[in-house]
Amino acid sequence: MNDASDTLLLETAERLFRDTVSPPVLAAAERGEFPHAAWAALAQAGLHRALVPEGAGGFGVPVIEALGLLRVAGRHALPLPLAETMLAGWLLSGAGLAVPDGPLSVAASPTLTLRRQGDRWNLHGAAPAVAWGRDAASLAVLADVDGQAFVALLPSGAWTAAPGQNIAREPRDAIGIDTLLPAGAVAASGIGPVQLWAAGAAMRCLMIAGALERITAMTVQYAQDRVQFGRPIGRFQAVQHNLAILASQTAAAIAAGDIAAEAVADGIRLPAIAAAKARAGEAAGVGAGIAHQVHGALGFSYEHSLHFLTKRLWAWRDEYGGEAAWSLLLGQHLAAAGADRLWAEITAI
Amino acid sequence: MFSFTFAPPPAVPEAETLRAEVRAFLAAELADRPAIKRAESWSGFDAAFSRKVGQRGWIGMTFPREYGGHGRSALERYVVLEEMLAAGAPVVGHWIADRQSGPSILRYGTEAQKAFFLPRIARGECFFCIGMSEPDSGSDLASVRTRAVPADGGYVVNGTKLWTSQAHESHYMILFCRTGGSPDDRQGGTSQFLVDLTLPGITIRPIHALTGEHHFNEVIFQDVLLPESALLGTLGQGWQQVTGELAYERSGPERFLSSFTLLVELVHALGPAPSERAAIALGRLGAHLVTLRRLSRSVAGMLQAGENPALQAALVKDLGALVEQEIPDIARSLIATDPPTPEIERFLAVLNYTTLHAPSFSLRGGTREILRGIIARGLGLR
Ligand SMILES: Cc1cc2nc3c(=O)[nH]c(=O)nc-3n(C[C@H](O)[C@H](O)[C@H](O)COP(=O)(O)OP(=O)(O)OC[C@H]3O[C@@H](n4cnc5c(N)ncnc54)[C@H](O)[C@@H]3O)c2cc1C
């Protein structure tokens, strides 16, 4: 399924995820076991630092290619905080803070308050649904100080995590923070909360595109293998047309992922990310539904691995804003620009 | 395993200068064109407009200069097309020649055919129509019955073409018909001809659409003598040639912008601060268009690179028709049409026009079912 545009980095990721993420690993992750071996392999290849600029300890991978890793991760339902680690690294390096090693996560919430206390900072508050909040080695927190965004880097132990999960049983923990941080752990952020949210949404677009690619491949294969009425079910026109719809939704999600990646590379173009997340989210729902329909009861069983992907599609379409939220933003943007500028706005995306 | 290649559309910075030129041209040319005429999208006809577009060098842009073309890239051409459609320009006169007849002549034509047709097409003076469908051959195009039989000095053609858009405004048709072949080899034994529609024995009869408009026709061939020089490409290779033509026919911006004028009118009617429900619906349609535009430009890039993106083109057309057909349904659900202010009247006129035309969006150029069959084949299922 390698795209012609897949580079060495993406091929490496494809191989690495194929070797380290298996259905038992995915099932264990659902039970709350962090897949340390998979993380170690990923970290050894340096994939988690792909979005970190060269000057801050990264390898100078172009942003679009770095984000392409997430499409590959999506294909494998990677049960690791790769997106979150990339996001945290981007946030920290954007503020001139060092990017620590290990799995990272990000928290941003209006209820978090950051205040100077002598030559240190007090960070206090809570954030819901922090991805891998319990497993992260460090946490990058975006908080507001008198109307300006600041980033704080928290070492492990500086927060509590009450376990929670999304619909795919990926860790989404409620964290509580009340900690004193040294001055060097806090810096003004180059990235505001809306941009952070949008970058997260863009990442989900790429993950959705990858998961859809994979379920399309799986579903086409299944339709060729499963025989009923004396022939492969893929010979039935009704099934073929459903698969054609699945393929076209996947194509749309791939395009949305590409739009999103370019919008991040250009410094977070919000309308483009809004369009991408709204479209990819819709494709996720339609695609997952067809994949299940074609797989019959087998795909509804825990034993078959389709659900590791479809549950993630259902989770990711809602995370960092679902279709309604992003359609609203884009719709308000287009309406405000007005009828005479509608086309100009669309081509500008 | 199949692979999805939708290569990112290549960047063409020079296209943005071109875009500004086209926008300025259209703003001036179409200043007085009412919304209801813009809504005709690529079925609007205006021979004088087509000539002006030709004068600007925006027809046959990708043809070589020696044939009156402009040596521009497929993506530059794409910019012109999408700007024309978004503005609701009356392009149908030159559309078919620019999109498929010209490229087919360039690819398969003799030197004399290229030298004769291409400069005329590029000047916006020579319009083409598509002679594929027949009374008994729609989706099953290979079953055509119209036949050209070798005769003294050329071929004699008998048969009937149906649904031929713009035949009554066109100078030429590319005729797809039978020239031989046995019943078990339906696709072999077909050929294509460049037919001068003024030849004796050709009758063009209007067929009125459900709106009462005259866009398409029945074209009857009765002992029509075509010269030897009318054959396009190789005798017996008609099927290969015609299927190549369809990738051009299926992936362009006209496959998702047919209802664009209605979307413009919707934004107008909603005003700058619509309700949340309306903004969500509008944003969703915007997201679809943005994504389709990306896919469609990607196919243009693949065509330019000499690839054959037939599967991708079918995907674009299938997704595009769905959105084009959704736009009127969504638009009508968002606007209260009572009381009928002049603004609302204008919106309603465009809504009604688009509603009436929407059924054709998933028929013309290959039906939804046929496209999905092509996609299924691309997936390895057939
Ligand atoms: C506005 C408009 C303009 C047109 N302009 C031109 C033109 O300029 N030149 C030209 O040559 N033609 C033109 N056409 C004709 C167009 O190409 C045909 O309408 C199209 O190919 C379908 O053929 P048909 O209408 O005969 O439908 P049919 O082929 O009879 O199909 C009827 C229905 O059956 C379905 N169907 C058929 N076969 C299958 C199958 N194997 N599996 C599943 N479903 C199937 C179809 O999808 C459709 O829903 C135009 C059509 C329209 C509407």
The CATH architecture name of the largest domain in chain B reads Up-down Bundle
Shape type of chain B: globular
Unique bound compounds = flavin-adenine dinucleotide
Order of helices and strands of chain B: HHHHHHEEEEEEEEHHHHHH
The CATH topology of the largest domain in chain B comes to Butyryl-CoA Dehydrogenase, subunit A, domain 3
CATH class of the largest domain in chain B: Mainly Alpha
Count of individual helical segments of chain B: 12
- Spans of chain B of at least 5 consecutive residues whose pLDDT stays below 50 are none
Rg value of chain B: 21 Å
Radius of gyration of chain A: 21 Å
Structural class of chain A, by secondary structure, is: alpha+beta
CATH fourth-tier homologous superfamily of the largest domain in chain A? Butyryl-CoA Dehydrogenase, subunit A, domain 3
Mean pLDDT of chain A: 96
Strand order of the largest sheet of chain B: 1-4-5-8
CATH-scheme architecture of the largest domain in chain A = Up-down Bundle
CATH hierarchy, class of the largest domain in chain A? Mainly Alpha
What is the CATH topology of the largest domain in chain A? Butyryl-CoA Dehydrogenase, subunit A, domain 3
How many individual domains of chain B?
Answer: 3
Domain Acyl-CoA dehydrogenase/oxidase N-terminal (chain A): 7-92
GO molecular function, one term (chain A): flavin adenine dinucleotide binding
Protein name (chain A): Acyl-CoA dehydrogenase
Domain Acyl-CoA dehydrogenase/oxidase C-terminal (chain A): 201-307
